[in-house]
UniProtKB/TrEMBL annotation:
Domain Uracil-DNA glycosylase-like stretches: 93-248
InterPro entries (UniProt xref): UDG_Type-4/5, Ura-DNA_glyco_family4, Uracil-DNA_glycosylase-like, Uracil-DNA_glycosylase-like_sf
Similarity comment: family membership: Belongs to the uracil-DNA glycosylase (UDG) superfamily. Type 4 (UDGa) family.
Protein name according to UniProt: Type-4 uracil-DNA glycosylase
Family matches, as CDD domains: UDG-F4_TTUDGA_SPO1dp_like (cd10030)
GO MF entry, a single one: DNA-directed DNA polymerase activity
UniProt keywords, alphabetically: 4Fe-4S, DNA damage, DNA repair, Hydrolase, Iron, Iron-sulfur, Metal-binding, Nucleotidyltransferase, Transferase
UniProt source species: Pelomonas aquatica
Catalyzed reaction equations: Hydrolyzes single-stranded DNA or mismatched double-stranded DNA and polynucleotides, releasing free uracil
The keyword Acyltransferase appears for this protein: no
Length: 256
């Protein structure tokens, strides 16, 4: 894999330092160390966790199944499919490619700022997310280099759980119908789960995030890669190198 000047600049903005031998201005042709696709660790304790049932296309509720993306966005804004509608200010549908997306980025539930704005990742975490995507050769629609493939970024549930609690299994299950329709419409090549709650829901595994990273899972027939949430990386910049490894794995998986 090569990194051009733009990607090196984006990596620098992420706070990730390339090894000195790779930091020259010439395009780097060296292949980085292959990212191990780790076998599932042995003796993993599996505890009760909301399963990640694949919502088959036929299971998408009829009132979502006929909607295009703008229509689905409107339906989500008015959705009362679970109790999370009671205290939301705004549903967060997500943003990015308007027709097809190469990556579907599924994040943890909306935070207070997302709930207020009705949009995901509008602050520092969003800026870091955009730099991460750019470094990996992706962009959110309408942002940055229009020639790059697009990613669509959406939370695992569209409405903020009260006081930032974790969403309950019934809430996750209800909102997965929206995610299922988003997948149908966007037809991504790969799903990138950012954050523990999104990762556990989509993998169906109640493991620490570190054990879910570094391998390719599957969700709804699509390859699924797990990485850190950008807000976590702002608090723990030492893990940006690990996030870059994850992005390389996602990039290699979606462009074999
Ligand atoms: S979380 Fe999802 S299912 Fe629940 S009300 Fe919001 S949009 Fe509807």
């Amino acid at each position: 894999m090569s990194w051009d000047a733009r990607q090196r600049a984006m990596l620098a903005e992420m706070g990730y330092r390339l090894p000195a031998a790779m930091a020259s201005t010439a395009v780097v042709e060296d292949e980085p160390e292959p990212i191990a696709v780790a076998a599932p660790p042995p003796a993993v304790m599996r505890v009760a966790v909301p399963p990640a049932p694949a919502v088959e296309p036929s299971a998408v509720p009829a009132h979502f199944a006929a909607l295009d993306l703008p229509g689905l966005r409107d339906a989500v804004a008015a959705c009362r499919g679970c109790g999370l509608c009671e205290q939301r200010r705004n549903a967060v549908f997500g943003g990015g490619a308007l027709q097809q997306a190469q990556w579907l980025v599924v994040t943890d539930p909306p935070d207070d700022a997302d709930d207020a704005a009705g949009d995901a990742f509008t602050g520092d975490a969003g800026r870091l997310l955009d730099r991460m995507l750019l470094a990996a050769g992706q962009r959110r629609s309408g942002r940055d280099d229009a020639e790059l493939p697009t990613a669509f970024v959406t939370p695992i549930v569209k409405c903020r759980p009260p006081r930032g609690r974790a969403p309950q299994p019934a809430e996750l299950a209800a909102c997965e119908a929206v995610l299922a329709r988003q997948v149908e419409l966007l037809q991504p090549r790969l799903v990138l789960a950012m954050g523990l709650q999104a990762a556990r829901r989509l993998t169906g595994l109640a493991e620490p995030l570190g054990r879910l990273r570094g391998r390719v899972h599957e969700w709804r027939g699509l390859p699924l890669v797990v990485t850190y949430h950008p807000a976590y990386l702002l608090r723990s910049p030492a893990d940006k190198a690990g996030a870059w490894d994850d992005l390389c794995l996602a990039r290699k998986t979606s462009n074999p």
